[in-house]
Amino acid sequence: GVGTGCAVSIEGEVVKGGGKQPIELKASSFELVGGCESDYPLQKKRHSLEFLRSIAHLRPRTNTLAAAARIRSTLAQAVHAFFDEEGFNYVHSP
Q1: What pTM does this model have?
Q2: What is the pLDDT of residues 77-86, one digit of tens each?
Q3: Contact 4, 40 (CB under 8 A)
Q4: What is the pLDDT of residue 45?
Q5: In DSSP terms, which residues pair with 27 in a beta bridge?
């Protein structure tokens, strides 16, 4: 079956949702690209940051840390854009 951590490829049409979701994907094809063991450490529940420290390679796949990464990326882009507009050059020092 398909569980948390599996990789899938889905093709279909985005349609107006009929329930809690404003939009849904009406799938016309579904392919399981990569399976996942049943003992996969991240399940559909909240995990403490302490627990996530023990599985560092999977931390970016959690909602909390993925959101922090998106915020960091947006802030970095805004800072770079500001200094670029002001005529500064971005230099990687050795």
Answers
A1: 0.46
A2: 999 999 999 9
A3: yes
A4: 66
A5: 12
SS (H, E, C) the chain: CCCCCCEEEEEEEEEECCCCCCEEEEEEEEEEEECCCCCCCCCCCCCCHHHHHCCHHHHHHCHHHHHHHHHHHHHHHHHHHHHHHCCCCCCCCC
Give residues with Cβ within 8 angstroms of 69, minimum separation 6. Answer: 60
- Which residues of the chain are under the pLDDT cut of 70? 4, 38-45, 47, 56-57, 61
Query: How far from chain centre, in Å, is Cα 56?
Result: 15
Three-point CA angle 44, 47, 49, nearest 5°: 150
